[in-house]
Amino acid sequence: MIVRTTNRQYVLPWLCFLVGFFSALSSLGQSTAKLSVGIAYDTTNKPVQFAVSRLKNELQQSGQVVTVLPVTSSVAAIVIQLLPKSVNDLIQEEGYQIRYDKGQLRITAVSSTGAMYGVLDVAEQLQMGKTWQTITPRKANPHVTVRALKVNLPWSSYRSGPAMAVHTDVCRDLTYWQRLLDQMAENRFNVLSLWNIHPFSFMVKPTNFPKANNFSDQEMADWKRFWTGLFRMARERGIEPHIVNWNIAVSPEFAKAYGVNERNDTSAIVKRYTREVVTQVINEYPDLAGIGITLADWMSNFQKEGVTLPEMTPKDRENWLEETIIAGMKAANRPVKLIHRSVLSADPAEMRRVINNAKLPDTTLVEIKFNWSHGHSTPTLALTHDSHSGQRDDGYWNPMPSNYRIQWMIRNEDFFILRWGQPDFIRQHIAQNTAPYVNGYFVGSEGYIPAKDYSHMDNAHRTWTYAFEKQWLFYQLWGRLLYDPTTPNAVFETSFAKRYGLKSGKSLLEATAAASQMPLRLASFYGSTWDYTLYSEGFLAPFSASKGFQDNVSSFISIDELIDHQTLDPTYLSINEYVKQVQEKKAISADKVTPLALAQQLETDSKRVLSRVETIKSTASPTLTCELADFEAWAYLSRYFADKLRAGVELATYRRNQDKTHQEQAISHLKACVKHWQKLSTITASHYHEVPYIEGYVSKENAFKDAQRFWWSNYLPQVERDITLAQAALQTTNK
Q1: First and final C-alpha spacing in the chain
Q2: What pLDDT, on a 0 to 100 scale, did the predictor assign at position 28?
Q3: Which domain holds residue 657?
Q4: Which of 175, 473, 595, 715 is buried most, with the most CB atoms less than 10 Å from its CB?
Q5: pLDDT tens digits for range 209-229
């Protein structure tokens, strides 16, 4: 009895053990099978290889073992394949398809770049929580074919001074370019355009003009390795490298050695040199994709006192281009693309003539500056820079061109320090400005190079190396939305979440979107033209745009300047216009944005930012706290701008009706502005320091002098000066 009972006591545990053991073996087998993922692709294809490295990383992070198999493998889990366009004519160049076929995840494309984007799409879906078995099938084609980044070079730079020179060492380092190109590829940019006055003497020792530079053989070999490596890395990521020069300019060494002027010299020797050096550069750099030309500064477009320049008509300028750049391109041993900038070309008929005569095999790119130097403003095309007037000229696209297309240049001269990201603005811009004659966008700056981050203090929370890495969202939004404007916010929210180890990035994206409205609203309200006529994050206008009153006291936009200034966006009413209509009891059109309505929008933006930041701040890492501080800075700039608009309306009203109640209200709002600026200065001083802005710029004017170096707290005296202006006697500004 006792023995039998004891045996029974051990039977059940042994049965449980055996069941558990075999169950564990089964699970282990299933787990082992799940952990092994084969990827079949052409390992010699560099763009695909780049994307697969990202895909492997995501798979490995989820605990899966990745094996590389031949592209013909029938047992691979994931197959990446290039197919002839005839097989699937719904996939365009740089497009791709993701689908399942007999248990395999297949990524197909008609180009290496398209295949790379397809693989990056799958990697991103894994990052968002999918497995390779649950990827969402899709077919994607680029919305625009040219998605270009504009990067100025610090040597032979168009803008000079410390803000350019500080980047020299970084920009000679190929590690910087590798990181930038990696980010470009991930963000779907496909053109890298490199800008300076005269690139050629840094690229070759001209055969017939060896004194065009003073580089030794070793120095020249170093430059050759640099350019070759840069262009090759770009191509390996599906990116076309282009160089963009200005026009009639030679190196100082050339001018001295051959007895010519460094600028504006239309002599035969400069023409011959330009033509030959273009040919030599194309021949020596097989990965160079294109050359750009500007018909602006040194084609006698800016006459200076005491300087005699050759007279040049639009036809003369186009003829010079035809005889030099285009002739040099056509003499080369292979074709490259032409970027013909519209800037100050002034005559679209002459431009069409030269492009037609050139008979280039590739579509010519005609870049047009959208709202001059301040593309981060209104999505409505109010200005270009085709001529000095800034007036848009539909002749560049009407009638529809057959051998060239337009690309909008979205310049950023408005925020170099604070982080920015507004996806809805970009989506609206693309929707509003896509047309049959438009095939792309350029995005970039003239007064800023996204290389060395010289504005941020060196401290432990600075986890990025380069400026573009700090401004990661700016580049991700522009690149991804140019490729596909329907890309959902969830993609950008996931980027925030992964970057900072959060469950969700939704609040962060909402905060940055609201914060980033401020510079757009200011640039839409305060009309500007060239680079230094507005710097939104500093509330500066160092030079006049000839659009209103300029007191010539400071770069800071005073209350008087804000009152008496034209808007850029035609739907906005200036303060003077609004007050005049109210005083005259005229009805205000429902489609107009009044200064008070704009102030309310800014106030709403600010509240949204600060409420989102408050919910995140207590648990944020030091690096995330830094990013949140930028959002707070924009929020207080929004509050400052809002109260200054209210003050402007009250002050302008007082100056018309002399009712001191309005003057008192204006002073009250301006005192609130002082508090906002003090708060802004405190926030930014916690992680930024004074930086060069337009230091080195030469002018007889006075106002710009206090913008040679920039820091928010430097302008507190100007913020306080507005109160003094409001307290002063009645101004004769009635219009």
Answers
A1: 115
A2: 40
A3: 517-727
A4: 595
A5: 999 999 999 999 999 999 999
